[in-house]
Amino acid sequence: MTQKKPGELIKVADIQAALARIDYQLEPLDIVLIRTDTDKLWDTMQYWTDYAGVSREATVWLIDQGIKVVGTDAPGWDRPFGYQAAEYRKTRDKHVIWEGHYAGIERQYYQMEKLANLDQLPAHGFKLCCFPVKILKASAAWVRPVAIVEE
After folding, report:
1. Per-residue confidence of the chain (151 residues) as pLDDT tens digits?
2. How many CA atoms, within 13 angstroms, populate the side-chain half-sphere of residue 128?
3. Is 20 inside a domain boundary?
4. Is residue 14 part of a domain?
5. How much is the pTM?
6. Would 149 be classed as within a structural domain?
């Protein structure tokens, strides 16, 4: 999704087109990683404001394909909050706020954010292990994701 502009939504059609480009059919329990190259902005203020986010519909579509774990190299799954707030002020539609996150109320999934170096991974065919840190009574925590690429 490196072609997406800051604040744009990543939609179902975008994900389907990306899958077609890499000639891959999703299988249940695959882990889907969304590469935006936002990690290249690390240590700048733009890192926090200049990225695309995944729409509610695209999140639900992934879950309906059997996907339970997703990740992105952006600081959040959703668009930056400034874009969400601007759209809310314009439309008064509360569903534009944290729409990807709120999809998890309807259908359970796990998301990873702030990943790095996704550009160094093949498009598919590798394993991803996610080692979580347990935090008592928390609704979120960090993980140590490790990609295993067999040669």
Report:
1. 999 999 999 999 999 999 999 999 999 999 999 999 999 999 999 999 999 999 999 999 999 999 999 999 999 999 999 999 999 999 999 999 999 989 988 888 999 999 999 999 999 999 999 998 989 998 888 899 999 999 8
2. 22
3. yes
4. yes
5. 0.91
6. no
Domain of 37 in residue numbering reads as 9-123
CB 49 within 8 A of CB 80: yes
How many domains in the chain? Answer: 1
Q: The tokens 């995944």 sit on which residue?
A: 54
What are the residues whose beta carbons fall under 8 Å from the beta carbon of 103, sequence distance 6 or more? 56, 59, 60, 63, 109
Tokens coding 133: 């840190």
Assess if residue 132 is contained within a domain: no
Contact criterion met (CB below 8 Å) for 26 and 67? yes
